[in-house]
Amino acid sequence: MTITRRIANTLIAGAVILSAGLVVLPHQRAMAAEQVDGQLYMVIGGRQEVSNLDPAQKYDLAIRMMNQALYDALVKYEGDPAEIKPWLAENWTTSDDGLTWTFNLAKNARFHDGSPVNAEAVVYSYERTMAINEGPAWMLDGFVSPGNVKAVDEYTVEFKLEKPYAAFLSFLPWWYIVNPAVVEANAKDGDMGKGYLLSNAAGSGPYKLKSFEPGTAYILERNTDYWKGFPYENDRMGGVIYRLIRESSAQRAALIKGEADIVTGLSPEDWSVIRSNEDISVTTIPSLTSFGLKMNTAQGITSDVNIRKALAHAFDYDAFIKIMNGEAKLQSSPFTDSVLGHVEVSDMPRRDIAKAKEYLAKTEHPDGGFEIEFVYVEGFGIQRQMGLSMVDSFQDINVSVKMVPLTWPNMVARGSSPETSPNLMAIFTTPVSTDPDAVAIQYHPTSHGKYYGTHFLNDPELNAMIEAGRAETDWEKRKPIYAAIQQKITDLQPEIFGMMRNRGTTKRTWVKGYADSPIRMEGEIDFYRVHLQP
User: Fold this and answer.
1) Coiled-coil intervals in this record (predicted)?
2) What number of CA atoms fall less than 13 Å from residue 365's CA on the CB side?
3) What is the three-state SS of 221-235?
């Protein structure tokens, strides 16, 4: 493989022929893309390592970004606001009782080896994900069971739900279809191909896996025979290199120097610095993502709702906006603004020391005098600043803060049980669906131990409301249920509800076709439409 780099932002005085055969004409401004075997590869500078490529095992922003490139699902989220679009499924129907869903597949869809993406492949993929019971399996747990997904004919798939589930379709974009023949050929000792798909792919997506170098870089080759084609014409677009650049300052430098075409997750300070560069554009949109400080409601001092209320009213919410350089908005509900059914809760806590002391007076610690443990992501400056703001604001109610930085895996481990979960944990949460159930379920016992369920909230009345909302398929009847759920969660105060920060992607101006969607995680890019325009 021959890889060379074009020099960014350099005006070439005469025609230059690069080693991979690309001619840069006089006075043409060169791009920052890599050249791999003579074709242009877009360089993405991201912070998160790709730990696994198997869509049935786990997901985070880096894994999901790769899965979208390598695989297809029955339907796909696109646009802002996010909408579900037909993909492998050209259309679908639903029975009157909401229990039977029938999907008609595109007959021209092909896996990377040329074999058809048919109904049997869809059934196999869903059965495999349910059997592994990891990754996205929770999304349909209790609604779709093994044996309930059937091939009606070669290109028709039928789902029989155990009970009505209003959010069913909204979760399907994250259930990717794998090639059964490839998976079975590489399965070992009954592992259903888990070992193989950890670092290999068996999909039908717009990209193929070219190189997988954990902790360094991941190279995807554009699938020129992609069954849906591409929304642009550029035969020189060869693929994508996802390169790990872990620090915001290093990402900014790489973009300016021409060592990256797109970077994600820049700090607000770096956004401010880079905005004046005419060769760089910053795209920001409001996000479904929320940032909150989850409180352990099951163990320790924060198991007292009045302690939680006191902390929530002592916190300086203006710090959220200041730390984000204004690129954020305070939450007006436990549901972020873009979630269907969002309502503004009139009594959302804001800084009010008098009210904080009133709540403290109802506890065993009326004068404060205790310490709160705050856990946040090590090296994440924004979360550290939140902690420092908390130290200052909690002094006014005589509460001290112990700040504990941990790596993300260690944070997840700490939050896996109520006995080890800290008093407060900094968590960014992106719903995987635009349906309100995707947020409400985070406050149900089924989410306990997951990173977004480190509060271990368990309120019977709230649980019943959440279950009722999931089962009701008539939106006009669901709507008041979710309004009541938002109020109830606020009353229980399982976290300090924080902010919705604008999600930002920074790119060179020669990057075209980029389109974000709030359903995507912070730093996640859909490569399908993105290309380089020389």
Assistant:
1) none
2) 19
3) EECCCCCCCCCCCCC
Cα–Cα distance between 453 and 316 in angstroms, integer?
A: 24
* CB-CB contact of 531 with 507 (8 Å): no
Q: At what angle do helices 305-314 and 381-394 cross, to 10 degrees?
A: 100
Greatest Cα pair distance, the chain, in angstroms, is 79
With tokens 């717009």, the residue in question is 206
For the stretch 484-495, what's the b/e string if a residue is b when 16 or more beta carbons lie within 10 angstroms of its beta carbon? bbbbbbbebbbb
To 10 degrees, what angle do helices 475-492 and 460-471 make?
Answer: 160
Phi (first) and psi of residue 180, to 5 degrees = -60, -40
Q: Which two tokens stand for residue 273?
A: 């610095």
Q: What is the pTM of this model?
A: 0.84
Cα angle 57, 63, 68 (rounded to 5 degrees) comes to 105
pLDDT digits (tens, 9 = 90+) for 98-147: 999 999 999 999 999 999 999 999 999 999 999 999 999 999 999 999 99
Q: Which residues lie closer than 8 Å to 517 by C-beta, 6 or more apart?
A: 77, 78, 79, 80, 82, 526
Q: What is the CA 106 to chain-centroid distance, rounded?
A: 27
Q: Which of 236, 235, 255, 237 is nearest to 245 (CA)?
A: 255
The stretches of 91-158 forming alpha helices (DSSP H) are: 119-132
Q: Which residues contact 365 (CB under 8 A, 6 or more apart)?
A: 301, 307
State in Å, rounded, how far the first CA of the chain is from the last one: 22
